[in-house]
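hiii, so i know i said id send this last week but things got crazy w the move. better late than never?? heres the sequnce for the chain we talked about at the cafe, plus the structure i predicted for it. fair warning i was half asleep when i ran it
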Amino acid sequence: MAAAAAGKHLVIEKPVATSLDQLRRMCRAVRAAGVRTVVSFVLRWNPLVRTLKALVADGALGRPYYVEADYLSYNGRWWSGWNDARTLAQGVSAALVGGCHAVDALRWFAAAGEFEAADAVEVFAFSGGLRKGGHVEYNPATHQWTESDAPMEYDGLEVLLVRFADGALGKVCVNAECVMPYRFPIRIFGDRGSAFDNRIWSHQFPGQTDWVEIPSILPDSSDVTHHPFQAEIDHFVACLQSGVESHCNLEDAAVTHEIVFAALECYRQQRPIRLPLESA
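okay and structure toks below
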């Protein structure tokens, strides 16, 4: 907010805020200052994600009616941000810490436009798992179990069901306690085709007898050096040079974050939550 008031354009990491109030105050500050923003939902620039989005925009899968994106990662001390992210005060939830990438992908693939993300109107979610408060930790890099004095303070498993404005449905599984290497599975179902990660079945290939496999870089690494940060920054510089808003600006990212905050509200109220959320 201080940077916006100073007239600075902003690259903002995710999560942009840890509460709905913070999120709304940031959006108001950016609107008042008239600065431009991009939020680091960096997987929008992942090569496979870009290819799948182009196929959706080109009609290769028809109209999307159901999409899935999962964030599967055993977060722990192997990650330098763990000591802060594991807490309720600073991490808040598994979905906010990292699963918001999958929530954003869900919105991205549910919309047919090339640079469009879908608006959610309803969220229903469950949380669970076995790891919350535990003192035994798995390291997926070494495949070893160790004692830990840094327990996760929130549920490690969340399943979010989302209804979008055009009637399409989506599902996100955030699993921060799965004993396996990091994965980011993607499923897109349209009325003319389907995508399973980098495998495509489409009406545009009427003679296909097996899945068409796209050779590409998949978003299946928790190593951030694998992520296309340079492409994100190049995009933002181009937006500034041409005087246009990013498709991943703060206003758009706020919709993704509201889905995560709606899930938290669903846990409290034990009922589906309508969007947009009402401020406290």
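btw The chain has a mean pLDDT of 96. thought thatd interest u
miss u guys!!
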